[in-house]
Design a protein that fits this description.
The chain has 177 residues and is of the alpha/beta class. It is built from 5 helices and 6 strands.
């Protein structure tokens, strides 16, 4: 029944996208639902969707956050990162991931959620994780620089190259709310 009929706010409605390729076989409930988490509002919506879906079907959730050396720093002659700086980047990423999981998973204690922080670019990291996943979930837009695009570059790459069905969660419901 439509949530709007009960006067309650509508849940965010994701857009389900899949690649044109065929998948080897349907995933079972032991396969994780992989979700990319970067601290953005749409990533939080994606995490919430993944948790609800996992709860409904008995899957675990694998929440992944990735980090990489900033491009400008790597390209600057004579600029060097200390090991402590790189550890700070990884630790900041881990803190964001764990905070998002803690806040979003309230009320869903039955869902097993694994947090994984990976060094590397987000799209290839998520695509690799999709090899054994029931589904891959991303927000439609992360922290990228082109505001206003309907689909961010990471989501686009995941939809195109993932090894499982991909769910892209947009920040607005279809009701226009």
């Amino acid at each position: 029944m439509d949530a709007a009929a009960h006067g309650s706010p509508r849940q965010e409605e994701p857009v389900l996208s899949t690649t044109a390729q065929s998948y080897p076989e349907p995933a079972d409930s032991t396969s994780p639902i992989v979700v990319g988490v970067d601290g953005s509002p749409t990533a939080r919506l994606a995490l919430a969707w993944a948790i609800r879906e996992a709860e409904a079907h008995g899957n675990p959730v694998l929440a992944i956050s990735s980090w990489e050396l900033p491009t400008m720093a790597a390209a600057s002659p004579g600029f060097a990162f200390a090991v402590a700086d790189l550890e700070d980047l990884a630790q900041s990423c881990r803190k964001t991931l764990l905070t998002e999981i803690a806040e979003t998973s309230r009320g869903h204690a039955s869902v097993h959620i694994e947090a994984r922080v990976v060094e590397g670019p987000p799209a290839p990291t998520l695509i690799h994780a999709s090899e054994h996943a029931a589904a891959l979930v991303t927000g439609s837009r992360g922290h990228g620089g082109f505001i206003g695009l309907l689909l961010g570059s990471v989501s686009q790459q995941c939809v195109t190259h993932a090894h499982c069905p991909v769910v892209v969660v947009h920040p607005h419901s279809r009701s226009g709310a």
